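Input structure tokens:
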């Protein structure tokens, strides 16, 4: 009989028994691309996508698409419409209010931290995104505006250095950003707040960047609220 030393020896080196997992799996890649699709406004409310359609578009099997969609439906970013089709969930006024209230706290926190830690490169990046959203608004480029709006906000949030805050904010945006295309009539007003945010970032004024950000969120809320059902 073994005295236990052989068994202990077998378990002493688990690395020899386990195949390392890739940190960037196929499912993660599909999930990331679907998040970008939603966040950039390329899947507006009312449009649907299918598992097989996405699998063909990504050039993968349906399995990683199915798993990525499960994660997004669990996060309230997508909902099952019919059969194997998914789309953007309906946004009620109560849910919009809830999202507004949370965004006012979480995004303002990230923006304030961003000011405290921003580098000249962060300020330059934010200024570049501001120029892009202003140009898109002037040209009536809706898709360009939505991409630039996201890039500008997240450039400031990313300067905070908090991956946890970024993850929380992205989850909030996955639920609200598909409806930003309804705000096209107020993009000029939004860019006024965007300009104030970038100027405050450059000046290192955390209170001012938080105020401008909150004004931007509030303006979007009041513009979007009348367009929603109960």
């Amino acid at each position: 009989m073994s005295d236990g030393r052989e068994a202990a020896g077998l378990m002493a080196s688990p690395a020899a028994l386990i195949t390392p997992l890739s940190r960037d799996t196929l499912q993660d890649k599909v999930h990331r691309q679907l998040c970008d699709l939603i966040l950039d406004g390329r899947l507006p409310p009312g449009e649907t996508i299918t598992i097989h359609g996405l699998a063909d578009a990504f050039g993968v099997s349906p399995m990683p698409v199915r798993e990525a969609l499960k994660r997004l439906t669990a996060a309230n970013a997508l909902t099952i419409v019919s059969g194997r089709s998914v789309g953007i969930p309906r946004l009620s006024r109560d849910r919009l209010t809830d999202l507004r209230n949370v965004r006012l706290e979480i995004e303002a926190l990230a923006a304030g931290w961003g000011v405290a830690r921003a580098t000249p490169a962060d300020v330059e990046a934010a200024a570049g995104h501001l120029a892009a959203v202003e140009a898109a608004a002037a040209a009536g480029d809706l898709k360009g505006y939505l991409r630039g709006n996201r890039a500008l906000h997240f450039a400031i949030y990313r300067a905070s250095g908090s991956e946890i805050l970024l993850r929380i904010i992205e989850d909030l945006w996955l639920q609200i950003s598909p409806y930003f295309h309804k705000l096209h009539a107020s993009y000029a007003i939004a860019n006024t707040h965007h300009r104030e945010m970038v100027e405050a970032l450059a000046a290192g004024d955390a209170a001012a960047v938080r105020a401008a950000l909150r004004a931007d969120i509030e303006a979007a809320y009041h513009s979007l609220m009348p367009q929603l059902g109960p």
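The radius of gyration is 22 Å. Residues 93-227 form a domain with the Four Helix Bundle (Hemerythrin (Met), subunit A) fold (CATH 1.20.120.530).
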